[in-house]
Specification:
The protein has 267 residues and is of the alpha/beta class. It is built from eight helices and eleven strands. It has a single domain, classed as Ribonuclease Z/Hydroxyacylglutathione hydrolase-like (Metallo-beta-lactamase, Chain A, 4-Layer Sandwich). 24% of the residues lie in helices and 27% in strands.
Length: 267
């Protein structure tokens, strides 16, 4: 166990069709061929992990200009982040008592547009940015060619950053803090397992599960949010195994119940 604290950084709210979050949430039938679409809202958040080795920022959220041209219009229409400018990284950090200059390292779970949009704040700095090699490769493939996934925006991550590329499926760079590759949503999504003195083990699973239904009920994300369904199922099984083995508390990527549990910080 390590003497660390975790602070929630509120980055606002994202809104999307629930069919993106939960596979087959609203399905047409013979009696109801045109079911009503349900829009759902979920938090966008980062974390500050105040660790003896470093003050670590977990994810960097959406770019403040997400709604003003930074995101392609079709993506913003599908994943609206209306308060991105109000909850920019500096403002949100300031609300927690931290500043950008306090951050010693960044951990990017993945490089989708609602998770990597604050990386430009570390352009040209010596702050290391941890990302899995499979994620970095796929992000550039997606943003620079017609292949891959449209949810990557080059303007989020194509900067002069001090990349610290994670090459293994499980790796430890900070005491009692393990990076665990959880492919499925993306090829190189990184979960974090942290053993906190006086609290226990926590797992920040990121968008391996967007909402609690993805994790608790094992309902897959919508097909548009899955790079690989098979890998997603295998990663879900791994997180649940780690939860059982370590008695861990698991936090997912965009569920308000989880941000409520994190609101007062850990421990």
């Amino acid at each position: 166990m390590v003497d660390a604290t975790v602070t929630l950084v509120d980055r606002g709210t994202i809104r999307t069709d629930v069919n993106h979050i939960i596979e087959g949430f609203s399905v047409g039938t013979a009696s109801d061929p045109n079911p009503e679409t349900m829009m759902g809202e979920g938090p966008v958040y980062n974390l500050v992990i105040d660790h003896p080795d470093a003050t670590i920022l977990w994810d960097t959220g959406s770019h403040p200009d997400a709604g003003d041209g930074h995101w392609p219009p079709e993506l913003y229409a599908a994943f609206e982040h209306a308060d991105a400018a109000e909850r920019d990284l500096e403002t949100a950090l300031d609300d927690t008592g931290y500043e950008l200059d306090d951050i010693d390292a960044v951990v990017q779970t993945h490089l989708h547009l609602d998770h990597a949009g604050g990386l430009h704040r570390f352009d040209g700095t010596e702050v290391p940015v941890y990302v899995h090699e499979r994620e970095l490769e796929y992000a550039y493939l997606s943003a620079k060619t017609d292949a891959g996934d449209e949810a990557y925006v080059a303007g989020d991550f194509d900067h002069d950053l001090k990349w610290q590329v994670v090459t293994r499926d499980r790796a430890t760079y900070f005491e009692e803090m393990e990076f665990v590759r959880l492919p499925g949503h993306t090829p190189g999504l990184l979960g974090v397992k942290l053993d906190i003195d006086g609290y226990g083990t926590v797992i920040f699973a990121g968008d391996q599960a967007y909402a609690r239904a993805n994790y608790d009920d094992e309902q897959p994300l919508g097909a548009g949010l899955l790079w690989s369904r098979q890998h997603w199922q295998e990663s879900l099984a791994l997180v649940k195994e780690l939860q059982r083995t370590h008695g861990a508390e698991v936090f997912v990527g965009h569920d308000s119940d989880d941000t409520d549990r994190l609101a007062d910080g850990l421990p």
